[in-house]
Design brief:
mainly alpha, globular, 222 residues, single chain
Length: 222
């Protein structure tokens, strides 16, 4: 795997820990028929992210970010996303420190998933119109390669397949070994529910720090 491929893989793993995506996994795994819900959500999510991802890649390929002052513009892109991730971590910390409030009802995503695969598919579309901030860094990297349509599409699909790994792994498990997967998923979901905020905050902080370092290196190299 070359340097760009490794970067895209690591960015996809970081994107997999986006809070909204983690929340969907937590909700789906505790509802009846999780395989149906996860498969419907994944279908909607992949459809949305791949289509919009290719639109963004093609737009970036013709923009100043990839055609002039490449290092400076790319570094600025990294710094911007890093700032957004730090803001996300700050908001999540405030949420964690706030005095717990009684819930007035389930979230929109939870209500959608409870109503079955059709609305889970819709949730996959709506929630992944903006699937976090990290994917934009990866799409910018793909655009800078200036590959043709087919090669760019392959990279975009590969990126999002890795990004949705927390949806895909239990889904495959339910299809191959449903009883064993159900037991493992219950334990995993309990752990994920307890550590949800810590995982999301740590992922945002670490990714932001790496993007800042990467952006600084780009500026030094010119």
């Amino acid at each position: 795997m070359d340097g760009t491929g490794l970067e895209l893989f690591l960015l996809a793993l970081a994107a997999a820990l986006w809070p909204l995506l983690l929340a969907v996994v937590v909700v789906a795994l505790r509802l009846p028929h999780p395989a149906r819900l996860l498969s419907a959500f994944l279908a909607g999510a992949l459809l949305t992210t791949v289509v919009l991802g290719m639109v963004i890649v093609r737009a970036l390929q013709d923009s100043r970010i990839t055609t002039s002052s490449r290092s400076t513009a790319s570094a600025a892109f990294d710094f911007t996303v890093a700032a957004l991730l730090l803001l996300t971590a700050f908001i999540l910390r405030r949420r964690g420190r706030a005095e717990p409030k009684a819930r007035t009802g389930p979230s929109w995503s939870e209500r959608a998933l409870r109503r079955g695969p059709a609305l889970a598919f819709v949730a996959g579309i709506v929630l992944d119109i903006v699937p976090g901030f990290v994917p934009f860094v990866a799409l910018n990297e793909i655009a800078q390669l200036h590959y043709g349509f087919a090669a760019s599409l392959g990279l975009v699909i590969a990126f999002y397949l890795v990004m949705f790994v927390l949806v895909e792994v239990p889904l495959v498990g339910y299809l191959v070994a449903p009883q064993r997967t159900a037991a493992l998923a219950t334990r995993f979901n309990e752990w994920l529910g307890l550590h949800f905020l810590r995982i999301a905050i740590a992922a945002a902080d670490v990714t932001a720090a790496l993007l800042i370092v990467r952006g600084a290196v780009k500026l030094v190299r010119g």
